[in-house]
Amino acid sequence: MDKKDIPRIPPLAEVEWSDEQRKLLGYAHREGGFYNVIGTMARHWDASKALGGMGAHVLGPTSRLPARDRELLILRTAWLCKAEYEWAQHVHIGLKAGLERDEIARVKQGPQDPGWSAFDATLIRAADELHAQQCVGNETWAELSAVYDQLQLMDVVFAVGQYTLVAMALKSFGTPLDEGLEGF
Question: What is the pLDDT confidence band of residue 184, given thresholds at 50, 70 and 90?
């Protein structure tokens, strides 16, 4: 959808919140962390809570991936899915996780960009393979396995899968960019 389009599913306004939503979403709203993704997903509250659980794992302390690596995977997924909202949010998050602006720009070029370390290129290739074949290829798996343990390997797939689902949802629902964020 074009960012000028009216959202197909608009973010849930605070006046529409149930008591449970008020209890769970109120803090983020008061602290300035209430984003359009949260409001949009809150329209389907049961699904939002389920999806939020996996999102909390991927972005939170239970994931075994270093934050920088996770953000490379998410940004590449956003780029491949042409998910502008996801890209815009994770540029901001990626910078906080230690990515440099030039690295974020190179995410668009893919794993063949000569500026990547061998392992960063492998991470980006893993996202590419998951996007194209829904499976990490044997060579890429072996390269990841040389650095990552079994749980980290699983978290690579979980991160790309979670953000592929989020990309599909936000694009289909027409979720608008939050104020202050820049898309592609």
Answer: confident
Distance (Å, whole) CA 134 – CA 40: 27
Residue 2: pLDDT over 60: no
Q: Does domain 67-173 have CATH number 1.20.1290.10?
A: yes
CA 52 from centre of chain: 12
Spatial CB neighbours of 162, under 8 Å, sequence gap ≥ 6: 54, 55, 58
| Number of residues that this document lists for the chain | 184
Amino acid at position 113, single letter: D
The structure tokens listed for 19 are 């008591």
Which sequence spans correspond to the domains of the chain? 14-59, 67-173
Quick: pLDDT tens for 78-110.
999 999 999 999 999 999 999 999 999 999 999
Which amino acid is located at 72 in the chain? L
- Burial of 20 (C-beta count, 10 Å sphere; 0-12/13-18/19+): exposed
Upper half-sphere CA count for residue 88 (Cβ side, 13 Å) = 19
What pTM does this model have? 0.92
